[in-house]
Structures are given as C-alpha cells and as structure tokens.
Q: What sequence folds into this?
C-alpha cells in the first residue's frame, strides 16, 4: 500500500487539481510513490473544518496519512460587517483552530508530516473589478477581504508552525515578492 498525502483546506485546495494546479503537480511528482487526496471545502474556515476532523481523520484509522497540508485562512480573514462576514473567524481563534487540527492529525498518526500553508495575498482591486463586472458599478462599496488583514492571519499561521515545530509555506509573503503574480493567481 502506498502512503497517502492529504491536502486539507478551503476552495483553494478544492480546486488544486484543476489544470496546472498545485495539487495536480504534487500528484504528478509523487506518482507511483504516494496517493495524493484532496479534501478541500469551498467557503470553509477553520471553525467549520473542525467539524470534519473525526470524519476525515478518524482516530482508529488503519491507514492514516503519511503527510498533510493544512491550507486555511482566506475565509477566516473575511471582514466583519461585510458580505462574507459569516466566514470570519477572529485571528486568535483561527490560530487555536489550526492547533486543534494539527493535534488531531498527530493523534491519528504521530509520525505524520504536516505543512501549514498561509492564506495567499488578496488582490483587492481584482476582486472589486470582478464584482463590478458581475453586478454593476455599485457592486461593492467596501471590500470583504483585505490584503493587510489577511497578512495578520498569515503571520499567526507561521507563528503556530514555529511554536509546534512544523514546516510551513508563507504563501502570503512569497506571492507578493513577484510583481503581478498575486493578481495572476487570483484570476
């Protein structure tokens, strides 16, 4: 039996097997070495992800994953009082929810390799332009997500990875290093 790599996250994970996606690239890289499984849930935040843990990663599993990515935060960082506020999770709760997810996975498999991935940067102009193209010029007075706010969540994700001795990918910072890359990805 081949080992399993589980990609656990929100819609960014859910869509990772689309043409040219990061999940598809992992599956290609580990072809014949490991099975890559996608457990991505569009619109989910860390609070809602906790409800899935026992179902997706049962403690009595005979074959727990060998590795997992945990990629949440884009929805958690939605701003209160705006159109996506139901997805908002306060930043300290976000960090604790990530901790609970990690601890549950480690309980399933103490040897599991876990990689935390920060939420990506927000292309505020692109998101507003897209909303206007769908709903007209008055589509969105105020953005429901902001890059600065998402950066706070990214920092908490990295902070937790350091505290728990986990590997991490600081996608929020990395994507901003290449001019125009964040905009390309969010399209």
A:
């Amino acid at each position: 039996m081949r080992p399993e790599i589980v990609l656990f996250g929100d819609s960014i994970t859910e869509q990772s097997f689309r043409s040219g996606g990061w999940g598809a690239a992992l599956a290609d890289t580990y072809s014949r070495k490991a099975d890559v499984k996608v457990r991505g849930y569009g619109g989910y935040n860390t609070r809602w992800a906790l409800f899935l843990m026992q179902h997706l990663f049962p403690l009595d599993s005979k074959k727990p994953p060998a590795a997992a990515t945990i990629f949440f935060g884009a929805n958690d960082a939605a701003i209160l009082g705006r159109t996506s506020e139901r997805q908002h999770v306060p930043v300290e709760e976000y960090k604790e929810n990530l901790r609970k997810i990690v601890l549950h996975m480690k309980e399933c498999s103490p040897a599991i390799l876990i990689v935390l991935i920060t939420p990506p940067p927000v292309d505020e102009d692109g998101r507003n332009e897209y909303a206007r193209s769908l709903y007209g010029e008055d589509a969105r007075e105020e953005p429901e997500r902001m890059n600065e706010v998402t950066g706070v969540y990214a920092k908490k994700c990295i902070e937790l990875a350091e505290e728990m001795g986990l590997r991490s990918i600081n996608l929020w910072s990395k994507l901003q290093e290449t001019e125009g890359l964040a905009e390309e990805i969010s399209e």
